[in-house]
Every structure is written in structure tokens, then in C-alpha cells.
Specification:
Anti_sigma_zinc_sf, 4-stranded antiparallel β-sheet, Regulator of SigK, alpha+beta, 281 residues, 8 strands, transmembrane
Length: 281
């Protein structure tokens, strides 16, 4: 009973899902037991590698380049003009001058002037501004159309990857919080490492691979669940992209070992080569 409780706590510890008292209990067990420390390290590594198992998505560089090019190549609107043709500037207020007597020195008799015809000039300025604005909108709409199409495709791929990552995270959480969770790590002679976190009760296993040699495109690493009745395929690891995590699900009653062989990229119904690793469960 104590073993099950310890396993349950170490899985939750790896997910940072414990309160202070339970966390202290696990840390005390880890200080007293090397096996507990190894189990915690393996489970934490498995949980951390979940985030690395999804390919990062970056917005295409052309999005920024297209927008900056549109700004650089689009004619800018001219400064707003006053009726006199000068740029509008704030004018300081001055007290009104006292009206001078008509005929006084320096003040010729008042004369009647017709209003200056400014309406046509203002109309031409408005037309030019509207034309420039229309040109800006036309160029911007073309650029933004391309940006939107590219962003929609990127968004769709990102949503698919996030959905797959969420599914994988839910499965991993199920494994690590199972009462019978176990973890095994095997390092091979060439430095490659394979970590297993599994629960027979849940019928699930997370297989994390790191440093496996790259294979030709027509080859892959096939995973096997081995029992007294033989080996059952548990999935493939891409031979050209060997670092990552594979989730395995299915009945695990009677399974005693886990193995990996090199097979055709499409997989084999049974092992055809000597296993590169076999791990007792």
C-alpha cells in the first residue's frame, strides 16, 4: 500500500500538482531513497519533454517584410494647407486693436474688397487627398489579403498542433497520476537514451527517445510490447527525426518487456532484426 501511495505522489510531483505537505513528504522520501530520486528524475524528464515533442511554429518573415514594404512604397498624404497656402500653425492670440479713425496718418481710407476665391483650391486639395487615400487603401488591401491567407494557413496548422499537444498532455497526465505508474530509463552504448513512463492499469505508455542515430528515409524504429505470446507493435519512431515522444495505448497485462528494432518506415507485423534495446518492465 505504501508503494502505491509513493508512486502516486511521485507522478503528481513531476507535474507540480502537490500541496506543500505532500511535496515535503516526497522530498523526504527522495533524500532517503535513491530509487525514489531516480523515479522522480525520469518522470520529470518525461513531463518536460512533452513540450519539446511538438514542432515550434513561427510566423513567416514575409509578413513583416510585406507590411514594411507597403509602408515604404505608399505615397504619404501632404501636410494640411490653410486657405493662404501655408501649413497650418497655431497663432498666438493678441488683444484686439482699437479701431483707428478713418483718414488718420498711416491709415488709408477703408476700401471695399471682394472675398478671395479659395473654394476651388480647397476642392482640388480634397480631391487629391481622397485620391491618395484610395491608392493607399488599394495597396494595403492587396498586401493584407496575402497576409491574411498566409496567417489563416499558419493558424490552421497551429491549431492542429495545439490540439495534438493537448491530447498528448492529457494522456501523459493520466499516466503520471496513475497509482501504478512506473518509469524506466536505458542509456545505450552510443549515448542514446530511451525513457519509459507507463501504467498497466491505464493501458498507456509514454516512450521518450533522445539521441537515436538517424536512419535513411525508408527505415524507422519500431516499438514492441513483448509478452510470453510474442511481440506486438506499439508504434513507430521516425528514423529521420528521432528525438521526441510517442504515446502507446493498449492492454498491457502480461507484458514483461519493451523493445526497439530497426524496420521499414511503414513498419513490420513482427520484428525482422535484432533489437537495439530490450527493457524489462
Amino acid at each position: 500500500m505504501m508503494e502505491e501511495h509513493k508512486n502516486e505522489l511521485t507522478g503528481s510531483f513531476a507535474l507540480n500538482a502537490l500541496g506543500d505537505s505532500e511535496r515535503d513528504e516526497v522530498l523526504q522520501q527522495a533524500e532517503a531513497s535513491e530509487a525514489v530520486r531516480d523515479e522522480i528524475d525520469a518522470l520529470q524528464e518525461t513531463a518536460a519533454l512533452l513540450g519539446l515533442s511538438a514542432e515550434p511554429v513561427e510566423p513567416p518573415a514575409r509578413v513583416k517584410a510585406n507590411i514594411m514594404a507597403a509602408i515604404r512604397n505608399t505615397p504619404q498624404l501632404p501636410p494640411v494647407q490653410t486657405e493662404a497656402g501655408e501649413p497650418a500653425e497655431p497663432v498666438a492670440e493678441t488683444p484686439p486693436a482699437e479701431p483707428a479713425a478713418e483718414g488718420a496718418p498711416g491709415n488709408p481710407p477703408s476700401q471695399s474688397h471682394e472675398p478671395t476665391a479659395t473654394a476651388p483650391a480647397a476642392g482640388k486639395t480634397s480631391q487629391r487627398m481622397f485620391a491618395l487615400a484610395a491608392g493607399v487603401l488599394l495597396i494595403a488591401s492587396g498586401v493584407l489579403t496575402g497576409v491574411v491567407v498566409n496567417q489563416n494557413a499558419q493558424q490552421e496548422r497551429l491549431e492542429q498542433q495545439l490540439s495534438a499537444l493537448n491530447d498528448k498532455q492529457a494522456e501523459l497526465t493520466k499516466i503520471l497520476t496513475a497509482t501504478d505508474v512506473k518509469s524506466k530509463t536505458q542509456r545505450m552504448d552510443d549515448g542514446a537514451r530511451v525513457t519509459l513512463a507507463y501504467s498497466a492499469a491505464e493501458g498507456m505508455m509514454a516512450v521518450t527517445t533522445e539521441g537515436l542515430p538517424t536512419l535513411p528515409s525508408d527505415k524507422g524504429y519500431e516499438l514492441w510490447l513483448i509478452s510470453d505470446t510474442g511481440a506486438v507493435s506499439a508504434g513507430m519512431v521516425d528514423g529521420t527525426n528521432t528525438d521526441g515522444m510517442v504515446m502507446v495505448s493498449g492492454p498491457m497485462e502480461g507484458v514483461t518487456h519493451f523493445g526497439i528494432t530497426v524496420e521499414p518506415a511503414t513498419g513490420s507485423p513482427a520484428p525482422t532484426t535484432e533489437p537495439i534495446m530490450v527493457q524489462a518492465l
